[in-house]
Specification:
This protein has 198 residues and is mostly beta strands. The protein contains 1 helix and 15 strands. The longest helix has 4 residues, at 5-8. The chain starts with a helix and ends in a 5-residue tail after the last strand.
Length: 198
């Protein structure tokens, strides 16, 4: 008797927050011990625009993070699990963006990157080799600032060529030498060399 896909999937845990928010983005740590869930809402509820980190082994809430100063749009663990990247917006800057790197040992922010050239950050991804992380924008007016490549210290090392659409997905290859990018309005998926930017 053959098994169907439904037979192979078993629900491990389900959690519903009482507030009217959406589980907008999430990411597992590489070892599977932690799960970060970013909740999105325009309200002022407890979980609105915050990041809830779960201890997966015991299914307990580990930490509730404010994330960014205004709105969190994406979360990504670095491959070594020592850092959680939060990308979003900064209410103190006109159309500005903000990236917060959290230390997963004590859950203190170890680096905050903010600027007017980080408009409408929507996606974040970390390379498996731990050398880089990338952020993508969903604002059409940002031109060649739509995808930015950062080193582990938070220095911008590369801005990729102009893309004509909103960045909706980012993914590094297993060898960290390529970055795949999904863009909405021109319906393209492209692959870029890291860090060269070709």
């Amino acid at each position: 008797m053959s098994s169907t896909a439904a037979d192979l999937l078993t629900l491990q845990k389900s959690h519903r927050v009482q507030e009217k928010v959406q589980a907008h983005a999430l990411d597992f740590s590489a070892d599977g011990s932690q799960l970060a869930i970013q909740y999105a809402s325009f309200s002022n509820h407890k979980f609105a625009n915050k990041v809830l980190v779960w201890d997966v082994s015991r299914w307990r809430k580990q930490k509730l993070l404010r994330g960014c100063s205004d709105r969190v749009d994406d979360v990504a663990f670095t491959f070594n699990g020592q850092t959680l990247i939060c990308a979003g917006s900064n209410k103190d800057r006109f159309m500005g963006g903000e990236i917060v790197l959290w230390d997963t040992e004590d859950w203190k922010s170890r680096l905050v990157i903010e600027g007017d050239d980080l408009e409408s950050l929507r996606r974040a991804a970390a390379s498996p080799d731990g050398k880089y992380f990338a952020t993508g924008s969903a604002l059409s007016g940002t031109g060649d600032r739509k995808i930015q490549l950062w080193d582990a210290k938070g220095n911008c090392v590369r801005r990729f060529a102009t893309l004509h659409g909103d960045v909706q997905s980012l993914q590094f290859s297993p060898d960290s030498k390529s970055l795949a990018v999904g863009v909405t309005s021109d319906r393209t998926a492209s692959v870029w060399s890291v860090p060269g930017g070709r």
